[in-house]
Amino acid sequence: MSASAMQNEPVILRDDQDGVTYLTLNRPKAFNALSRAVLTEMERLLDEISLDRSTRVVVLSGHGAAFSAGHDMKEMAADRTETALTELFTHCSRVMVKLTRLPQPVIARIDGIAAAAGCQLVAACDMAVASDRSRFATSGIKYGLFCATPAVALRRVMPQKAALEMLFTGDFIDADEALRLGLVNRVVPSADLDHVVTDLAARILDKPYDVVALGKRAFYESAGMNLEDSYRHATEVIVQNALGADFAEGVAAFAEKRRPHWPA
Questions:
Q1: Which of 164, 182, 205 is the last residue of a domain?
Q2: Does 261 reside within a domain?
Q3: Predicted TM-score (pTM) of this structure
Q4: Is position 262 within any domain?
Q5: Which residues of 157-189 are buried (b: 16+ CB within 10 A; e: fewer)?
Q6: Closest listed residue to residue 154, CA positions, set 143, 134, 170, 131
Q7: What is the predicted pLDDT for the residue at 8?
Q8: Residue 102 neighbours by CB distance under 10 Å
Q9: Three-state secondary structure call for residue 1
Q10: Is position 176 within any domain?
């Protein structure tokens, strides 16, 4: 492929299949580094998907040998002004928040390295499935940059001491260790990765859209609450859910011994 053709390639590929939207980072020669262009396109796509009820699940992956190696170091080095760096990290943080706020569940599909902000991206997704050749690191410390923003996502999905060891050393952990620490849900051979991701998505697809969206929102909203407030919030959520059309259909289907037909 010519250099001009490569420049015209989209930085993120989108493919919609039967309720699942596949987003693939498409900078394989740059190890899918999260350039400003990638962050801009990802934010645009997430905003679009958030309004699209035909998308029930999102699968995020990387084209080539890496899921993502993190921020584009060459791009960062070219403009290290406070204004540029503040804009970059604010933009990245906004994208990570949008993954959490997206109504649809997001599954990270990892088949290779996920480093620094790439590891943050895995942690920011709702679920993650990794091949057994995948590796994970918050490697900024090795280049004189503590991964402060990736730490926000890591500390929410991993034990504190394990997250700090990754952040202070910058060392890679393998897929089995990532599974043990809660960074990923499954570890499978590369040949089985697509099948396992598809199966996980399929087990979500037949659930009611509004209830999944409500549940995801409630789960993250209660994360920072104390125990009493968390239960109070959860009670409000489950009461409203139980009063709605989806649960009415679920109860009817249970009583009539049939599969539910969820309201559109």
A1: 205
A2: no
A3: 0.94
A4: no
A5: bbeeebbeebbeebebbebebbbebebbbbbbe
A6: 170
A7: 80
A8: 20
A9: coil
A10: yes
